[in-house]
User: Fold these one by one.
Assistant:
Number 1:
Amino acid sequence: MIAVLDTYTRRQAAVQEALEQVEVAQAQLSQVEAGAKLGQIRAQSRVVDRQQVELQTETEAQEAAIARLKAELNNAELEARRYQVLYTDGAVSASLRDGKQLTADIVRQQLNGSQANLSRNQRSRSLISLDRFTDRRLYQAAGITGVASVSPIYLNSIQWRNPENKEIWDIYTIGINPEHQVLNIAGVEANREKLRQPDTVLFNLGSRREFGAIAERFQSGEAITTEINERQVQIQGLFKLSPTFGINAYLVTSDVNFLRMAPFRQGGLVDVGVIKLKPDADVQAVLAEMRSRLPDDVKVMTRDDYAKAEVAFWSASTPVGYTFDLGVVIAFIVGSVIVYQILYSDVTDHLPEYATLKAMGFRDRYLLIVIFQESLILAVLGFIPGTVIALGIYQITNLATMLPMAMDLGRIVFVFILTAIMSSVSAAIAVRKLQTADPADIF
């Protein structure tokens, strides 16, 4: 029974590998049936086979290392327990016992690290923290009904030398297949053919000044050459893509040029895969089939789901989101206090009038409605100029940082609702003085 359990996992992995190879073969067959050139398919097949062997070899080596560390950990724990008993009996010193326990702890940490490396895809959370996967997953996806094409994308920060002051900055580089329309950006699509040339890149118009006045010089007709990872490259075009909180500048190049500029990257291990569907394909059906057929080492998402995941990452998993949320809370509290002070002063100044109304028989509910109406009028009168000022600040921030700042209708409505709630809370607090006012005491 022990022998059966010991080989079950490896045999199961072998079966899974065989199934994946069948899917790759089916994808290649689909490409042939669709009219692809047989020579290209055979070339892709050889690349896939080589990558499968490399990945299988790497996986087996990691599994072997994990098995070895498990055995070492078992021996280390047995040794640590034995020396604990000997220490209790007074046969060994405390230093010997602690040394054995330390050895067990070190082996346990090594085992945890190896296991984490074997299943590292679970840590992918954002564009700046992606883990790589083999591009054979894309070839497997190409064989699914409804898929029109698949394209790998390489992403990595690479050292850029400012051609003006020779300073070195990390620039986020995107490697694409120039044969496919992957990035829906005007500048990239217009200059995509130029990326077929060796050592050519497209530079981002939205890059910060630290990377040099590349756009101005290129638009004036100057030929610009610089170094990326100590490799000379030439700027062949411009495109516009705004920076983010984690990325200050972008480059776009071909996948072949990317691997030349980043020799530390292994070809075939990609960061993102773009899958285009046929016009008549059912998106949800294809998505469900991909998720059922592809292994767990990749995540399959639509473009909208990916955008939502990116926003959720920055909002919930980074200090940036916490800072903005804290700013909203502080603004709500400060605004409530200011509106309360205005309403409280108004109630105090007109307390005789309110007391007269109470003496005439008006109930507190009527007076409360009057105060709430006043608070809502204050909210509207303050919201209109506040929105105009906010739009101006957004524009200034965009010009200063080049970050994409937009005040859409949904955000405006949300802020107005918060403003109304803030004014209502302040009115409810301010009206307490009016409720306790006695007309007899005032007159």
Note: The longest strand covers residues 147-161.
Number 2:
Amino acid sequence: MSEMRTQLKKVRTAIDDGDAATARTELPRAMKLLDKAAKHNRIHANKAARMKSKLAKAIPAS
């Protein structure tokens, strides 16, 4: 769970700093950890899907 939070923080920090390249490289790992947490009922599956969608939308298109 803490690994997931740390990974989400890395993605959000990269997005806030405008570093799209880093955000794109960190995003797949964050998505994997969200899916894993949902699979083991650590978080609700819909919450995982919502978080994944929000992170993907937040990454700049450049």
Note: Residues 2-58 form one domain.
Number 3:
Amino acid sequence: MKILFIFPIPRIPIFGKVLFNLGIGYLSAILKQHRHKTDLLTLNNYDRQKIKQKIKTFSPDLIAMSSTSDQIGLSRQIISYIKNNFQLPIVLGGVHATYLPQESIAIEGLLGICLGEGEYPLLELVECLEKGKDYRHISNFWFREGDEIIKNDLRPLVINLDSLPFPDREVFDIPEINKAWFVGMQFMGSRGCLYSCTNCNTPSFRKIYKLGKENYVRLRSVDNLLAEIDSVIKRYKFGGYVAFEDDSFVVDKNWLREFSSKYSKAIRYPFFCNARADQIDEESISLLKNANCRLIRVGIESGDEYLRNVILRKGITNNDIVKTFQLAKKYGIKALSFNMLGLPFETEELIRKTVKLNQEVRPDFIALSYFRPYPGTDLYNLCKENNLISRRKASHWLEDTILDQPTVSKNTVRYYMRVFRAYVCGSNIMPLIKLTARLYIWKNFTLFDFMKGTKDSIKNHFMKNNQQV
């Protein structure tokens, strides 16, 4: 059979028009392993001409879509268009279908939805459709027949990750993706997370699978991971960074020791990874350095310990964070801080605490986003219970806050989103930045935004022409 994956992505300028997705990569790989053909259409807007052209040239037998909650509106438009013009079977997977299955199965035009990990459920569905067999019993899938919804149980998670084929990268535009330095060539050495942060869907995922923390976290063997990296390097001959997208790359010290020893000899490409501040110590940072780690990405999230450890339930102290950034500097590894603004019950004073903690640790890079209450997370439920979620729409986490809170105004959150980096890093024109960041030209658009947009446009022009700004 021929399966066309459709991947709706947010319209974020720094990401461009294409992104890599490990989930789709694994799904495509296992289908190709069983002699099916796959292709991919990535869309960051509702482009009927692109959809029509891809379907006509590839002639798929099945459409498989993966959608986040941010992109479900775009996904609905795509599904409706295909239903009305091509009469093809369509299945929807991803986090939105997993955590809002009742809403997802109600979307007109869907054959069914897939909950949880989808490699073997999708393969089974494809093989049933190809042979004309009954598919309504397939684990992980919900199907709708008229007014009836068929809800199948989840099959166990894949425990032996080495048994899976390497993610298929051929369906992606890898050269275009690799132009973004901050993305890197992406890999994962594990699945799952031990922790229960309330802004993350991990606790809900463990709950629907009825698993404890230990059974949920699964590690690939170091040799299997390195074999994949080696094959990708040889295939694409890229000269950038390897990016490990694991929730926390340093979760298992024994695995990290083996990785450090083998990666430093077999691969040696510079890489970056995610790490929890309470898991970084002298040995782990030394192992990362030995393996040629150039950057660790660390979640600060909030500078206030109550917000971080009671509301977000991260269990990480300010001392843990300070120590981690100090160790990174000691070993010559750059560090990035993740920060969220507009958290539930946040005040302007607490936002300033986040600024202050960043000023103290002096990250080399700052990642900043609006807090988003995603379905399937405990914080989404908390926000719903306290009527904090407004009717404002935003297609991604950099666009706007969607909370209305009595403790902090939306304009205050927007203000700090604009000036956060200037506060942390310092600026000779700080008075001008503060002034222009509060002067609104149109709706949620300030003079600061206009000036920054002009600067970025000029910078992008020179970069495209290989000139220095």
Note: Confidence is low (pLDDT under 50) at residues 458-469.
